[in-house]
Amino acid sequence: MIVSFLYLFQYVMILLNGQVPIAFGGTEEPVAYGELISIGGLGPSVNGNLSSTIAEILETKLSIDSSRFYIKFYDAQRSFFGYNGSTF
Ligand SMILES: *[C@@H]1O[C@H](CO)[C@@H](O)[C@H](O)[C@H]1NC(C)=O
Ligand SMILES: *[C@@H]1O[C@H](CO)[C@@H](O)[C@H](O)[C@H]1NC(C)=O
Q: In tens digits, what is the pLDDT along the chain, a chain of 88 residues?
């Protein structure tokens, strides 16, 4: 699962791919991997809350144990994020 997140909902893109075989910890039990990209706004506390919230959604909706979920946070510079033929 790749999730791109920006603060204005208009710019939020969510990409889900359930077709990728993933082994984690030597098993193929339900598992998820996420990437969250934002121009600013991320930090230890926000990331912790997002990780907790997303893990809870995955656990309740998709029965993915939170111990089988990685999420990677990227804080992108505006000039390193292309959009609409330019950059933010
Ligand atoms: C993270 O969650 C805690 C507990 O719900 C809350 O007190 C805190 O304000 C949140 N931090 C951010 C940055 O949202
Ligand atoms: C996309 O770029 C065009 C040309 O620069 C501009 O007219 C338009 O307003 C832009 N659209 C958005 C949603 O930013």
A: 445 544 567 888 889 898 899 999 999 999 999 999 999 989 999 999 999 999 999 999 999 999 999 999 999 999 999 999 999 9
Structurally, the chain folds into a number of domains equal to 1
Contacts of 17 (CB under 8 A, 6+ apart): 1, 2
For residue 84 and ligand 2, the question of a CB distance below 6 A is answered with yes
User: Cβ–Cβ contacts within 10 Å for residue 55, how many?
Assistant: 19
- Give the residue numbers spanning the domain of 49: 2-87
Q: Whose CA is nearest to atom 1 of ligand 2?
A: 84
